[in-house]
Amino acid sequence: MLLLLMASTAMAESRPPLPCTPVPGYPVPPLAESAPPEKVTWLRQVPIHAARVRGVPRSEPLDGCDSSTLPLVEPLEVRLVRSALVSYLELRGAGTLALGRAGRVSPGVQLEPVARLLLSEPEKERRFSIEPVDGTMLAEVRLYEAAEEPLPETALAMALASQEKGAAAITLSTGALAQPMGVTAVLLELAAATPIPFPLRVRLTHSAETDRTWFEADIHPQADAGSVGGRWIVVLDPPDIWCEAGEHLVLSVTPLPEAGAGPPDPAASMAGVQARAALVPGTEQEVGIEFALSRLQWLDAWYAAHAVDAPWERPGWSLDDPAAADARRWLEVLSRWQPRHPATIAYTSRLRRLRSGNELPAAGPANAPAWARLARQLLKRTQDVAYWWNSTRYQKDGLYGGDPAGDAALVERLATVPLIAGHPVLLRSTRAGCEGLWRAMQARATAGNAGADPEAALAAWVAELPAGERERWLLAITRTQSLLLLADPGNATPLRRLLPFARALSEWATVNPRGHRHLRGAPSGAEGALVPVTPERPGSVVAAGPALAFFWHSGHPGVGRILSEWACAWAADILSHVDPEEPGRLPAAIDPATCGRLDTGARPSAREKNLLRRFLLDIHRVSGQKDLLRPVALAVAAGDADPVTAALWRAQGHAEHDEQIARDARGADDLRAYAAWIATRNKQFVVDGLQHALERLENERYLATEANPPPEALEIPGDLLLRSLYLGGCATWQGGMPRVAVTWENIGVDFAAFVTESRTDALKVLLYHFRPEARPVQMRLWALRPGQYQLEVGPDDDYDDEPDRVTERRVVEVERGVALPVMLPAQRPYVLRLVAKSLRPLAAAPDVALCADEVALSPDRRRVSVVVHNFGTAPAIKVRLTVTDTRRRVIGSGAIASLSWPENLKTAAARVEIPLVTPAPEAFRVTATLASPELSTANNSVAVYAR
User: Fold this and answer.
1) Which residue from 704, 803, 842, 913 has the highest number of Cβ atoms inside 10 Å of its Cβ?
2) What's the burial of 804, exposed, middle or buried (CB within 10 Å: 0-12/13-18/19+)?
3) DSSP states of 437-456 as a string?
């Protein structure tokens, strides 16, 4: 239902009031009980382009075309087709909500079940926000412009088609139209000599879509007290319609039973009721938008119904197939009325199998290796996708409009180009996305408890969620915070956020009577109390993600022990319950108390199984325990492992199934191609994989952009393959353990890199820069052990992956996340190599770190207060703090004699007050230094802007 404004003219010529609910914060004019709003004659609905609920990504507006009722947990963002002077709103549902517009939010509106809001101060808007308050359920949202002029003029009367004696409905029709015309509204006049004691259903159909209702509404004509009958004028504002010559409209009026009453007697019900109707005309410009959007909603539903079998993917598919007749007709309408609408482009490209119209970037100089030319082209196309999302879906809060888990997956997927090219705009978006998601999650956890420690409150809140919800939130936290460690290496805030989750894991994962560590429960209520959580499913290992990310940075021995014991327990219990006849099949769940197999009625999903296998591989990577590999080896042998798991397994040196890996790589554009290169060292697998990925992205780029996929479902062909080449290893970090050797800064997309060797004591990268001039860049090193390394760079004109001669040689100091400056030569294949000269002994070390949000300046600007953290594995002795201005002059200093380390996984931090010799400038820097070696010095300094 879209709009119904009923003007009732009874014998006393009065009209019933239009009920309006006052909204605090939005002035509502006083209404006399027997009078309508002053001057308002009728209302025109403003078409809605899209209404998106964070948590339930939708492309259709909640305007009556979908009868479902949605629970609102996150705001509903309503976007109109055009800016409009919205004066009146109607919202249907249950519970309480708040209305947000122009930076204001009302305290709360009760839906019972309809809230009608008349705004006395309308503003021209294009976006509205419906905020949930208390158990909000929302079915429809309608926004209107108030018309103060008389009822609209009509152009064509509808003739009475049938009203036979005893008929259940009155039917009116335009008959075949002599010429095309647009219809913006329908005026319906009803007259009866006696009261109509029941509601009526009004239904409008269009001959072009006889099986679909164009408009449907229920009305209840009510006469004034003491009147025996009356005349009622109803303005129906359906979605605008365009009728071609020869087409017609049919309007039916049918009696309906009232609640608790039986069906009305048709003969008695409609006897004495007379009806007339006429059309309100509109131009092509007036009706085109709504006419096309309604077809788009029908096409959405058709596409969703066929998405599983996807007939358009099959050879020989054509829109001429009889089963696609509706889709073909709707596409023709969309192509005429809304040719540039993103969904029109997406569906047209998808169903007509069209290629991208944009030209590919030039392949580059002839001496560029084939893998380099293709990698650069694919990187540029991937950048186009990232730019599209940032320009069309990116919001001021850093989010994209999905739920936190979906947005986290999207931010992680779009991070490929920023980490490779170091592009400042996309890098800022990545950082803002990670921060925005954290704030959104934090707001939920601290709702009603503003004084709580935000990090601890979020960890405690997540712990009390049901298992499935907890996994979604933990995965979102892991994805964003482990990514932020790479995207913003000088920022220690992710470590501060991850530490409470590492501590929580030590409470959740407890040792059972059999000596196995399993996820037994979550803290709740009294300190240390545990609530049993059974069964433990393979997907439960996402609880290890935040702790694994923290361990990746710090190497905390307590966290490492917990992770190792848990992984070993999983491996042992899996192997004890795997059927030899089905080696790739895992138990659906484990009883954490007895380690026995639990039958839950369903097999574990592929996603759950692969999460568990990647967890075992990550722990093997840092612990070297070979038993952790046996379940993964069984899955690879059985062909049950996904490409990421198989590639990770092969990257750790297991060559038992190299022939199968090479065979599976044929036609692959993902990590199967990379695994085949590892197995054979034949770059042709990489070249073929890049070529296939590029062709797919050319053919299906609209699926990653204009088709508006849900954020968590976004797929970019070749994305993980690019990460592996440019960043080293099987470059994915969503499990908590960043598997990268290097990230790049200040370089752009006109270069190609292929990390061919990545060990803890050596790194080799093949490079090609496509620009005609040399360029200085920075590479950040993540996988090398701290120590001194010999850097060698030289050309590789014979393409044997070895420098023909060394043109640059120097000794560099390496630590975790260090930025190493490198000059990238122009248009010539080069090899860069780092080989260890002397490594630091493996020993506990501190890690002094600062967070920008924990630096405060006194009102007189003469004192700086800063919190100093230690995220390392040893106490920090004699910490010196300095405050410098933009000219690097010291304007204040302080010291800490000793700062403990988080041995018990509790925060090790101290606040220091630093007096300044001169008032602080608008920008200054705070730096912490130690005389002894640290894990990393990248997070020892923060810039502060005190405007």
Assistant:
1) 704
2) middle
3) HHHHHHHHHTTT-TTS-HHH
pLDDT score, position 685? 93
Counting Cβ atoms within 10 Å, is residue 801 exposed (0-12), middle (13-18) or buried (19+)?
A: middle
Does residue 308 carry a pLDDT above 80?
no
239, 333 contact by CB (below 8 A): no
Residues 435, 436, 440, 446: what is their CA dihedral angle, to the nearest 10 degrees? Answer: 40
Average pLDDT for 880-896: 94
The sign of the dihedral angle between the CA atoms of 650, 656, 662, 664 is: negative
Q: Which ranges constitute the DSSP H helices of 606-683?
A: 606-623, 630-637, 643-651, 658-664, 671-680
What CA–CA distance (Å, rounded) separates 79 from 544? 39
Contact 872, 934 (CB under 8 A): yes
Local structure of 790: helix, strand or coil? strand
Overall average pLDDT of the 784-788 stretch: 94
Question: Is the separation of the CB atoms in 332 and 287 below 8 Å?
Answer: no
The three-state DSSP-derived secondary structure of 207-234 is CCECCCCCEEEEECCCCCCCCCCEEEEE
Q: What is the DSSP letter of 293?
A: H
> What residues form DSSP beta bridges with 758?
763
At position 476, the amino acid (one-letter code) is A
- For 483, the token pair is 């990514």
Nearest C-alpha neighbor of 692 from the set 671, 720, 722, 669: 669
Alpha-carbon distance 923 to 947, whole Å? Answer: 8
Per-residue pLDDT of 153-183, as tens digits, reads 888 888 887 655 555 688 999 999 999 999 9
* Cis status of the peptide bond prior to 281, with omega within 30 of 0: no
The helix/strand/coil state of 673 is: helix
End-to-end CA distance of the chain: give it in Å, rounded.
Answer: 52
- Between CA 387 and CA 742 the distance in angstroms is 23
Helix pair angle (493-508, 454-463), 10° resolution: 40
Is the Cβ–Cβ distance between 870 and 901 less than 8 Å?
Answer: yes
Residue type, 894: G
- Decide: pTM greater than 0.85: no
Mean pLDDT of the chain: 82
- CB hemisphere CA count around 463 (13 angstroms): 28
Q: Name the least confident of 38-42, 543-547, 781-785.
A: 38-42
Tell me the mean pLDDT in the region 899-904.
Answer: 94
Token pair 């269009």 in the structure block, residue = 206
Q: Which of residues 628 and 529 earns the better pLDDT score?
A: 628
What is the rounded distance in angstroms from the CA atom of residue 717 to the CA atom of residue 697? 6
Which residue in 883, 866, 852 sits closest to 431, CA to CA? 852
Structure-block tokens of residue 736 = 């908590």
Q: Which residues fall within 8 angstroms of residue 499, CB to CB, at 6 or more apart?
A: 455, 550, 871, 902, 905, 907
How far apart are the C-alpha atoms of 339 and 332, rounded to whole Å? 9
How many other CB atoms are found less than 10 A from the CB of residue 654? 17
What span, in angstroms and rounded, lies between the C-alpha atoms of 201 and 169?
A: 9
CA atoms within 13 A on the CB side of 21: 20
Amino acid 133: pLDDT = 76
Contact predicate 2/239, CB 8 Å: yes
Measured distance CA(814)–CA(741) in Å, rounded: 13
156-195 residues labelled b (16+ CB within 10 A) or e (exposed): bebeebebeeeeebbbbbbeebeeebbbbbbbbebbbeee
Cβ-Cβ contacts under 8 Å for 423 (sequence gap 6 or more): 383, 417, 748, 749
